[in-house]
Specification:
single chain; alpha+beta; 7-stranded mixed β-sheet
């Protein structure tokens, strides 16, 4: 305790510079803890969402008083769930969380977001038949943007009704993210947020390391024991880290309130969901000071054990090279998977890749951090020996003597680029899993639910390439094996937009469709005729011609089954086919799909939309994952930039004595600035180059073992190179103002 009190008295009695250093350490720790709390709270938000959804899950049972039927439909790009309740008796009924009683026939209870949609869009009233008598409270919703409704109706109107049992399930239902995806998200966030965060907090705990080491060495020389010397240093670091942790938690609470109100694309949460739980608070308030204590013990050990060498700047030991050995197994595993894929073998599948690839990513990241110092020292020694330039020689000799300072400056940014490569791979893999692999996406809607104006508006939506009609020939009876054919009403250009290839198409002419990927339709023989029912009750008889168009369709597709191509000009003016489906086609990237679905929902909110080949829940999951990974990248960027700024500013302050000596020896301002820039740029170029190469190998090995069609992310490399170049240029420009030529000669040490 006496050593701790001594450390605090020395801190406050050492002038404004020491107090400024303490404040900078505390603010840096506050920023780091705020980012840590945000990263640790993301799983809490997801768990709170899943818990409420599970508590409201409806199950069938032996209840004779009511039946229910659940509907899941897309409203635009959002999932809409409706629970229809049909009462059959007067007995008690279970009540889901968030409402006081189930609605009766003709009544409805909706979520606040759905209530806003019904109030602002009268055409959406068909989604919720009946009078809205209440809203669902937050405990019955997944989040503020949840589209959910309980609708009372007659039991006879429910085609697939089941007896209403109870609300709530023992296992998780309708997860926001499925467990395997959540594990991938946690691992990725750990790589792009938590690893740089540990580096940043370590940097904050070692601010003004040289000055503090000299001060501690002085205490040791006047008689303070080794243990007490370490306690003096640890006390200052721990207090600064604890103050920063408290400030960071308070700051995060304010940010959470704002972000809960603003939300993320695909994800909004209640403020209570994002408030840190006991475990998160304990990790922030205890983990950050504990890390500061460990770093303080390590950084002060040389000053406590060998104070003479510290005070008189004894020769420093070269950095250890053992940490760089982690790159060997890490790169060996990732390169091995890449080599297997390059020679034509597919190593995907099995449990080995699920263990080896994450382990290789961790070893590679750790090897980058621990190997940067010895590699930079070796390269600096070689360049200094070959260089004939004074600024380059000064910069390289300084980097050779103190490569650890370079490690603190650039490690955060290096890990950020490495994590960005891995994030690109995760997004590509999830994108392959969550949607169809075809380059086009189809949307099928019943013609009976659309007006002519709505069809025209949908065909003109941004992103829609073409439209067409699919229908089936009319039969007078369902008894017996009556021949039937399916047809598509479209022009040749519209057919080409839906298919992979077309050959032999002629406009304004009925043609048979031959699909090489599907068996021939025996009913569609040339010479036979089939009637198609029109909306005015009449029938359009279409003969099967001898001429055919060859069309290779994607899988799945609404156009895989049709055997006839009917030109739109064959339909009588003012009529349409009855019982047909209106089909749209667009590009298959998630942004376009969401845009088209949102447009369809705005034009015809009550129409049943089937996005062919995808599940609306998967699309919503992909949106959430993208948002969370973007948040992780932003946090990683903040941490990396903060670590760089703090380290560069700290190095400039620490080296004022050396700069003063060079000024008195006649060094020019330009020379000093070049030295400063080179000292920052060299380790940054080395680290970013290694991060791009190793990150791309890690990303490729992840894609290869994932089993998807994409194994090599060539499109992502230019983006990484551009980001790395921007980081280097920004760091070089930011380093120039850190050198001040006019410095007080008192900064020169006089021992």
């Amino acid at each position: 305790m006496n050593a701790f009190v001594l450390g605090m008295r020395l801190l406050w009695g050492s002038g404004r510079r020491a107090r400024a250093r303490f404040l900078l350490m505390a603010l840096g720790s506050a920023l780091g803890v705020a980012c840590l709390a945000a990263a640790l709270t993301i799983p809490t938000i997801i768990a709170a969402n899943d818990a409420r959804v599970t508590n409201r899950a409806v199950s069938s049972g032996a209840n004779k008083n009511a039946v229910y039927q659940e509907f899941l439909d897309p409203y635009g790009s959002q999932p809409l769930r409706r629970i229809f309740i049909g009462r059959k008796g007067t007995g008690p009924l279970p009540v889901p969380p968030g409402i006081k009683a189930l609605p009766r026939a003709g009544e409805a209870i909706v979520s606040p977001k759905l209530g806003e949609i019904l109030a602002s869009n009268p055409r959406a009233a068909g989604l919720v038949p009946g009078r809205v008598v209440g809203t669902i409270a937050p405990e019955g919703l997944s989040g503020p943007d949840d589209l959910y409704a309980y609708i009372g109706t007659s039991p006879d109107e429910l085609s697939a009704a089941a007896p209403l049992g109870h609300f709530g399930a023992t296992s998780t239902q309708h997860e926001l993210l499925d467990p395997s995806t959540l594990d991938i998200l946690r691992f990725t966030l750990g790589c792009i947020v938590l690893l740089p965060l540990v580096i940043f907090l370590s940097v904050c705990a070692r601010l003004s390391g040289e000055s503090r080491a000299r001060r501690l060495a002085a205490l040791r020389l006047v008689g303070l024991s080794v243990r007490d010397t370490l306690r003096v240093n640890a006390g200052e670091s721990v207090v600064a880290a604890f103050v920063g942790a408290v400030v960071g938690l308070i700051g995060y609470l304010g940010i959470n309130e704002v972000m809960a109100w603003v939300g993320l694309p695909g994800l909004r949460w209640y403020p209570a969901d994002g408030r840190p739980n006991g475990t998160t608070i304990a990790v922030c308030l205890l983990g950050c000071p504990a890390l500061a204590w460990v770093v303080g013990q390590f950084s002060a050990r040389r000053a406590a054990q060998s104070p003479i060498s510290v005070r008189r700047t004894g020769e420093r030991k070269p950095p250890k090279k053992y940490g760089a050995l982690l790159l060997i197994p890490g790169l060996g595993i990732t390169s091995g998977y890449c080599l297997l894929s390059a020679v034509g073998r597919n190593p995907s599948g099995g449990s080995a890749g699920a263990v080896l690839v994450p382990g290789a990513v961790l070893m590679t990241g750790a090897g980058l951090v621990l190997g940067l110092a010895p590699i930079t020292a070796w390269l600096s020694r070689r360049l200094a020996g070959m260089s004939q330039s004074l600024p380059l020689s000064l910069a390289m000799r300084r980097t050779e003597v103190d490569p650890g300072s370079a490690l603190r400056v650039v490690t955060g940014l290096v890990l950020l680029v490495f994590g960005a490569s891995l994030t690109q791979g995760v997004l590509i893999e999830l994108d392959q899993v969550s949607r169809r692999t075809a380059p086009v996406q189809e949307y099928s809607l019943p013609m009976a639910e659309l007006s002519a104006q709505q069809r025209t508006q949908m065909a003109a939506l941004r992103g829609v390439r073409a439209h067409g009609l699919t229908t089936e020939s009319w039969v007078s009876t369902l008894e017996g094996n009556v021949p039937r054919v399916q047809a598509i009403v479209a022009t040749c250009a519209q057919l080409a937009a839906f298919t992979e290839t077309t050959r032999g198409c002629v406009d304004n002419k009925v043609l048979r469709i031959k699909n090489p990927t599907f068996p021939f339709d025996d009913d569609a023989r040339p010479g036979s005729s089939f009637p198609f029912l029109l909306d005015n009750g009449r029938k359009l008889t279409v003969p099967v011609p001898q001429e055919a168009v060859t069309a290779r369709t994607y899988d799945p597709s609404e156009l895989s089954d049709p055997s006839l191509l009917i030109p739109p000009t064959l339909l009588p003016p003012g009529t349409q086919l009855a019982d047909a489906s209106f089909v749209l086609v667009s590009a298959s990237d998630p942004t376009t799909i969401r845009s088209v679905l949102d447009g369809i929902g705005a034009i015809a909110p009550t129409a049943s939309v089937e996005p062919v080949g995808i599940v609306i829940d998967s699309l919503a999951q992909l949106t959430v994952i993208r948002s969370l990974l973007v948040v992780g990248m932003v946090l990683g960027l903040v941490i990396g930039v903060a670590a760089f700024v703090v380290s560069v500013a700290d190095r400039a302050m620490e080296r004022r004595g050396q700069v003063t000596a060079l000024v008195l020896l006649g060094a020019r301002a330009g020379t000093l600035r070049v030295v400063q820039v080179v000292q920052v740029v060299l380790p940054l170029v080395v680290g970013l180059g290694a991060a791009i190469v190793t990150g791309w190998l890690a990303e490729s090995s992840y894609l290869i073992t994932g089993g998807g069609d994409v194994h090599w992310d060539w499109d992502g490399l230019p983006l990484l190179f551009a980001c790395a170049l921007g980081v280097v240029l920004t760091a070089a420009l930011a380093s120039v103002p850190m050198v001040r030529r006019h410095i007080d000669p008192e900064h020169i040490r006089r021992d």
